[in-house]
Amino acid sequence: MAEDADVLVIGAGTAGLPCAVEAARAGLRVELIEADADIGGTLRVSAGHLSAAGTRRQRRAGIDDDPDRHYADVLRIGHRQGDHALIRLAVDEAAGVVDWLDDNGFPFAPGTPVVYHGHSPYSRPRTYWGVGHGRSIRETLRPMLDEQVARGTVRLRLRSSAERLTSEGGVVTGAVVRTPDGPRELRAGVTVLASGGYGANPDLFAALTPGGPRLVTNAVPTSTGAAIDMAVPLGAHVRFGDLHTPRLGLLERRSQPGRVDFWSELANLAPVERPPREIWVNAAGERFVAEDLDDVTRHERAVQEQRGAEFWIVGDEAGVVAGAPLVPAWDVGRFRAEAARGDTAWFADDLVGLARRAGIDPEGLTRTVREYNLAVDRGEDPWGRRVLDHRIGRPPFYALRSVAALLCSFGGLDVDTGLRVRRAGGGVVPGLFAIGEALGMGATSGAAFCGGMAVTPALAFGRLLGRRLGGKS
């Protein structure tokens, strides 16, 4: 049975929600489908970081900033990669997005905007998030959607996933959707792919990330790359998978291979916030980078080059009890308990025992710690580390294993600045648009994590496309 609407939005997440809301406000009839049991997509696991220049909050804080500076910073941090036209569009729309959230009661975390050091930092404080991180964005958008659903301008279908796009004469006409009530053909004048990335699809990740590591991910199960799978048979072009950049500090438990938990198991590796009291070693027990580099992207690339894209953070008892904890969610007691458990952290009274328990080469680790302690004594490190005020010598010794993990898919569908899906050989796929992580973070962030340049463009492009489809922008 075929059912008609003006707009079919596939995915009720960061991009799909504002797109559906704005299109409905403009008077269009919207079908909004979501594979999960609730709206929000990745917002329930996302940090929800936003970046925008020229917002009211910045002006009230006396911060001089503008989209031109934001654009220059994104190109600098992202090594001038990505789609410059989309980056420009995103930063130009960003302040409006943050002010719009502000107008709708978004609960900003106290003190934001800030210069965030979990990624390579911007030149000015322009990073924001909510008290509930990504969930704050979802709950701010929820009443907007509820209003349109109550008015009958949006039909929301949960637990419903698109199986394939339909077309006539080369023009996309909608999709065949699997719903709790059985299959439906949903027809629409415009179809919008907003179904997220491919972080839960190891095969697609491997195909789009040549030479990349195995997939270790924080993605929700619905991040299967469905947008790519549906659009490619119609000639859509996929790009920027080669720009894949991992997030550092995430801890993969051996009891849960392939998964990480951004919320509770993230080590703080930003030297500005927590000067390192440990060293980083690979499986051979060798250091491979200065642990206190200010350039987070160089850290990310260095880890990705190690065997298994994994490393161990090795320290001693004095380092555990001194200052800020290595894992902010773990106090000293929790850290020791995790080391005794031996799933992602380990301890021993000597380095050889530690290495054997943690899976590090004992001879390599012993040699490396000896060389590092000599560097501390001399005040000069061959790797160029500047923080040299803590030897590793007081047992018990500890190791915490971290992996290069996927938080965002960097590859995605090629679109123009009208957000129309483009073909590999030129031209567009008529009737088909894409927004959000379906575009890949590489498009708006380049070859690095630029803070807020996944969530903010998703909101901005969703909102912008909804208005454009309704003739309001």
Protein described:
There is one protein chain. The chain is an alpha+beta fold. It is 31% helix and 19% strand. Strands 1, 2, 5, 6, 7, 8, 16 and 17 form an eight-stranded mixed sheet that branches. Strands 10, 11, 12, 13 and 14 form a five-stranded antiparallel sheet that branches. β7 and β8 form a beta hairpin. α1 (16-25) runs parallel beside α14 (455-469), α4 (84-103) packs across α14 (455-469) and α11 crosses α12 (362-378). The longest helix has 20 residues, at 84-103. It is elongated, with a radius of gyration of 23 Å. The model has no long low-confidence stretch (mean pLDDT 96).
Radius of gyration over all CA atoms, rounded: 23 Å
Summed over residues and divided by their number, the pLDDT gives a mean of 96
Number of strands: 17
State the secondary-structure class: alpha+beta
Helix residue percentage: 25-40%
> What's the helix count?
14
In terms of DSSP E residues, the strand content is 15-25%
Low-confidence stretches: none
Describe the main β-sheet briefly.
Answer: 8 strands, mixed
Based on CA inertia axes, which overall geometry fits? elongated
**Measured distance between first and last alpha carbons:** 34 Å
